[in-house]
Amino acid sequence: MTRILPLLAGMLLVAGCSGAGTPADNVAATEDSAGALPEGNALPPPDFETVPPSETALPTDSWIGKWIGPEGLVLDIQPQDDPGRYAITITLLDGTEKHEGTAESDRISFNRNGTTETIRAATGDETGLKYLAGKQDCLMIKQAEGFCRD
């Protein structure tokens, strides 16, 4: 019995230092610097601002900026005042074109020479352009008309 008492005392001492606080300790952790509990004994709400759904970013917003194609070709996408609307500038071998595009899910559609075209995410291999082969962060309008960032 005399050997068991020191062992039990040691176990109680270790258990008391384990970091598992009592309910009173947990309540004390929620007190502010003045020692007062938040109203209703609840934790205060986190500090963040809720953004209305109409102001959330679209997947196509990550495409804003310049994309480079072979032989100096460039696709430049810039935001306009309305969400989901973009100013598109396409520089090809035969000149520069300017268009207005609209986000449609994971694509941007625009009208070029009476035809509806779409810009979509692609790999360099999907563009069919040897210069872009192996690249992963790319956009394409149609086969052989692709642009990448990496």
Which terms would index this structure?
single chain; about 150 residues; alpha+beta; 2 domains; eight-stranded antiparallel β-sheet; 8 strands; about 35% strand
Textual characterization of the structure:
There is one protein chain. The chain is an alpha+beta fold and 150 residues long. 15% of the residues lie in helices and 34% in strands. The protein is built from three helices and eight strands. It has an eight-stranded antiparallel beta sheet. The longest helix has 13 residues, at 4-16. The chain is globular, with a radius of gyration of 30 Å. Residues 21-33 have low confidence and may be disordered.
Total count of strands: 8
What is the helix fraction of residues, given as a range?
A: 10-25%
Give the CATH topology of the largest domain: Lipocalin
Alpha carbon gap, first and last residue: 74 Å
Q: How large a portion of the residues is in β-strands, by DSSP E?
A: 25-35%
The class by helix and strand makeup works out as: alpha+beta
Largest sheet: 8 strands, antiparallel
What is the number of helical segments per DSSP (H or I, 4+ residues)?
Answer: 3
Q: In total, how many domains does the architecture comprise? A: 2
Sum up the overall morphology in one term. Answer: globular
Mean pLDDT: 79
Which stretches of 5+ consecutive residues score pLDDT under 50? 21-33
- Strands in their spatial order, largest beta sheet: 1-2-3-4-5-6-7-8
User: Based on the structure given, which CATH architecture of the largest domain is correct?
Assistant: Beta Barrel
Please report the first level of CATH classification, the CATH class of the largest domain: Mainly Beta
Q: Using only CA atoms, what is the Rg? A: 30 Å
Q: Helices and strands, in N-to-C order?
A: HHEEEEEEHEE
